[in-house]
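Ticket #4471: complex job returned nothing on first submit. Input attached below:
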Amino acid sequence: MWCMVPGSTTKMLAQMRRGAIEYCVLALLRDQDRYGLELARALADADGLVTSEGTVYPLLTRLRREGLVDATWEESPNGPPRRYYRITKDGRAALKAFGVQWERFRDTVDALLD
Amino acid sequence: MTDDLDAICAEYMARLEAALSGLSPGDRQQIVEQVSEHIASARAALPEQTEAGVRDILERLGPPEEIAAVARTEEHSLERQGRLSLLIAGGVAVVLVVLGLGLAAAAGAFSGVGTTTTTLGSSTATTGSLPGQPSAVTVPELEGNQLTSGTQLLQAAGLGFTVRYVASDQPVGIVLAQTPTGGSAVKEGTKVALTVSGTQSAVTVPNVIGESQADAQATLAQIGLNVTVVGPVANDQVAAGVVFAQAPAAGSRIPPMSGVSIKVSAGPTATSTQQTTSCAPITVFGNSRTTSTIPCPNATETIFNVVGWYTPTGAAELSRTGLAMAVENLHSQTVPGGHIVRTSPSTGAKVPARTTLVVINSQGP
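Support reply: We reran it on our side without changes. The output follows.
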């Protein structure tokens, strides 16, 4: 099938990731605050949700600008102090709204694919 | 050895700053700081400071150009609700592709949403080139332009490009040279080799004394300097809201993105009671001078660790504790330029509020 050539698969995954990635960040922050490196590594380790860890920072910058995430400094036991990211009330609301839409969307797609 | 590793990291950061040129200064600075912190944390976690370890960290971060490409899409991204529907629209398009229902529809959806993963040069090589014989195009003149606007011109002309970053006295992101030169006639799809300023060795501090606070901030921010406003401080000679002191002085050559403090007048001195009730930070310029300050009652501050921090960030965080601050520059073999070498008094010291803290900023080797 033509769409299975590697280039198209990469593109397809990039497409699908783009809309969902920020909510994955919010989801990672739902139960605990995390610092940048930790967050970037968690996303990279989650089946390559991000292929380049650095791309999470422009995203975090926007999420902070939109008030979905805020940041505080904390001392680190080893190394420089860390900026910990925390989900805000608005962030939780956005995550919740996404969860509802995502389920519907996923079910629709699944039904079409079956 | 550590020097070499620092140099590798500094080179990566310079490439990132150059790639981010054209973004809003606020976003650019935040991304640079966050990536710089990422590297510092990741290096602190290395069992041994080896070149392989550092290269692995940078490899995992990804090419600076890719981070910049994402930053551009983020900057122009739609509002939240818009994005959600975009995801659904994009997803539906993907489903169509999977079902093999429409090649044209899929192509439309992909091009409509744009691509996140951009590799310099290769993304432009395909742009606008239809199958068939390549036609001749004229290479635009790019020297002195911003890389971002230059690449747009190349893209519009149907040309690709490669970028090589070098240190120069030009601002980061400025095209220094190009091959073929502007005006040459070449085949469509040809890659133009660009030499771009990746590290600016120094910027000249302008004079902002006598300007309003807003004007001074705008002037300094425009050339990429970080502004710390001190005051308002009572001053009998200067009207309220006007800058009456700055550090470093006008004409100083300092690393790009380093901090400049400006002192803003509050107008003539009010009653002394007004001063005793406020414990606003007072900054002195140069560590040999002290200001006469009214001590804040029973306040001490512990100096937290800012060694290795990006200097503007470290200074901003420290100034929040109400400490006065003076920045001094020195050459360091171990701390990259624009980062804090040490403070005096040093980390952990307990000092009375309003003590003048000296932050030693690295100017690089």
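Residues 25-44 of chain B form the longest helix (20 residues). Closing as resolved unless it happens again.
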